[in-house]
Design brief:
Layout (H helix, E strand, L loop, with lengths): L1 E10 L6 E11 L4 E6 L5 H9 L6 E6 L2 E2 L5 H8 L2 E4 L11 H11 L4 H14 L15 H12 L6 E5 L7 H18 L2 E5 L3 H7 L2 E6 L2 E7 H5 L5 H6 L11 E9 L5 H9 L6 E10 L2 E11 L3 H10 L3 E4 L24
Parallel strand pairs: 3-8, 3-9, 6-7, 7-8
Antiparallel strand pairs: 1-2, 1-4, 4-5, 9-10, 11-13, 11-14, 12-13
Helix pairs in contact: 3-4, 3-5, 5-6
Length: about 350
């Protein structure tokens, strides 16, 4: 559905070229919900702009639903964008228009006849649970309701892909869960492919089937949630299933253990740990359900001299084990990205 091949984007700057994307290879399967996370300046904003064709890549290819977006002339690019819906962090509704008129706006731009527009708007508002709000104005809605209008507007032209740029960062936790539930339900009902740019690992845990970690314009880690959380010691594994950093006694070390219940049951995982003996202690642990798969993470305090032996025994029991390492792959903003919210190159 979405395929990026050796994607590069370089901006000229007063102090030299700024490489925003540096050889990105990425595949998002049809019907998947894929998250993209990364620190400030990782290239998340540039990536989504290249996906929509708002930025032309310096080199490489952007293929969406079988169409090479990066190679289209401007007139055909505008038509291709109608196959991509966009949900923004701050929604960007038109305050002078009613809810129905906001949802109808992309259809007006596309030249859809009035009668057809009216029926499509009613259908979309019912789909997002706002059938009774057609005549309301954005100022009369809650934050969650405004985001639902934004989602309905993004779906107006029946896109194959829904691109969401920080869609829940301005919402409270309860509204965030409702919004993510709606996106997941729409994916299931309509079969659309969803890409979510987010700094919130809770969003990835809640809704994503797969995830990509960007760093300095490159893919550092990529895969299904089951793959990344069982990549022991990786930054995404630590962030998706967090456990606290703990003080250690003398001559002691921490070993991180992760497992997925489609490979090893929690009962068998704990039995394997218990078999290590009394010198090994479980000091922290958590179990999460990610993309329908239950995944566990344990922190073990072990004698420092026995770390290699403990890891070897756990690995033999089909558990993923490694010395614990600290790190934080995510951040809220992208100030080092050379393009700001308006699309202007930063000075």
């Amino acid at each position: 559905m979405i395929e990026l091949s050796d994607l590069r984007k370089v901006y000229p700057g007063p102090a030299g070229d700024v490489v925003a994307l540096d050889g990105i290879d990425l595949v998002v399967e049809r019907g998947a919900v894929h998250g993209v996370v990364g620190r400030s300046g990782a290239g998340k904003s540039t990536l989504i702009r290249c996906l929509t064709g708002l930025e032309r890549p310096t080199s490489g290819r952007v293929v969406v639903d079988g169409t090479d977006i990066s190679a289209l002339p401007e007139q055909r690019l505008r038509a291709a964008r109608r196959r991509m819906g966009m949900v923004f962090q701050h929604v960007n509704l038109l305050d002078s228009r009613t809810v129905a008129a906001n949802v109808a706006f992309p259809l007006e731009v596309a030249g859809t006849p009035r009668a057809e527009r009216s029926g499509r708007v009613r259908e979309l508002l019912e789909l997002v649970g706002l059938g009774d709000k057609a005549g309301a104005y954005p100022a009369q809605l809650s934050g969650g309701q405004r985001q639902r209008v934004g989602i309905a507007r993004a779906l107006a032209t029946e896109p194959a892909v829904l691109l969401c740029d920080e869609p829940t960062s301005a919402l409270d936790s309860a509204t965030t869960r409702q919004t993510l539930g709606l996106i997941r339900d729409l994916r299931d009902r309509l079969g659309i492919t969803v890409v979510i740019i987010t700094h919130e690992m809770a969003v990835v845990r809640e809704i994503c089937d797969s995830v990509t970690l960007l760093e300095h314009g490159r893919v550092v880690q990529d895969g299904s949630l089951a793959e990344v959380v069982t990549d022991h010691g990786s930054r995404l594994a630590r962030e998706l299933i967090p456990v606290p950093d703990l003080p250690l006694g003398p001559s002691r070390a921490l070993v991180e253990v992760t497992y997925a219940t489609d490979e090893v049951s929690t009962h068998d995982a704990l039995a394997a740990v218990a078999a290590l003996g009394r010198d090994v202690e479980v000091v922290a642990g958590t179990i999460e359900t990610l993309a329908g798969l239950r995944v566990g993470r344990l922190q073990l305090e072990v004698p420092a001299a026995h770390v290699d032996d403990v890891i070897a025994r756990l690995t033999a029991d089909r558990l993923h084990a490694a010395p614990t390492v600290a790190g934080d792959p995510t951040d809220r903003t992208d100030p080092a990205d050379p393009r700001g919210a308006t699309g202007e190159v930063a000075a």
